Amino acid sequence: MNNLTPRSRGKHKLTKQIKISFNKLKEPIKTTSEFYRIGKMLGKGAFGRVNLAIHKLCNQLIAVKSINKQFLSEDENSKKKVMQEVLILQKTRHDNIVRLYDSFETNKHIVFVMELCSGGDLLNYVRKRRKLKEEVAKYIFKQVVEGLIYCHAKGIVHRDMKLDNILLDE
Questions:
Q1: How many domains would you assign to the chain?
Q2: pLDDT at 97
Q3: I need a labelling partner for 113 at 20 to 30 A (CA). Which of 6, 41, 65, 102 fits?
Q4: Candidates 95, 102, 160, 164; catalytic one
Q5: Could you tell me if 147 and 97 are in contact, meaning their C-beta atoms sit under 8 angstroms apart?
Q6: Is residue 20 domain-shared with residue 38, that is, in the same domain?
Q7: 49-55 and 167-168: which strand pairing?
Q8: What is this structure's pTM?
């Protein structure tokens, strides 16, 4: 174990904790921030910020949205909106809707582990190109509409549709 790199030691430690949890407690280990290596900030929103991260065990790139609990304690309405977002994302499974992989809390933050949309948002995509070719616009619009149809079928209304809330994959 002494000849392992710090990164490998961390992975080994997590693997050991998971095995102990399954063998002794017969239940999965609770997710913590130890499972992720947090990278650069991807964006900032009304409720928190989103960082690029990597899951230490499976080396998968993901997005980590963290919301400061101090901000939520000031406003009961904000807390309700965040909890609604979690419930909605847990209910949805669609190719055109960002997937929530996990969520957990630290002392200071509520953390969402989400699918990475590495293409950025549609607002920046359009700004870079000034305008979209009709085929590209139709392709994107079709996917947005399919996602909205799925949400409406589940009784979910978005209420904040705008270009910077539409995320693109690679």
A1: 2
A2: 95
A3: 6
A4: 160
A5: yes
A6: no
A7: unpaired
A8: 0.80
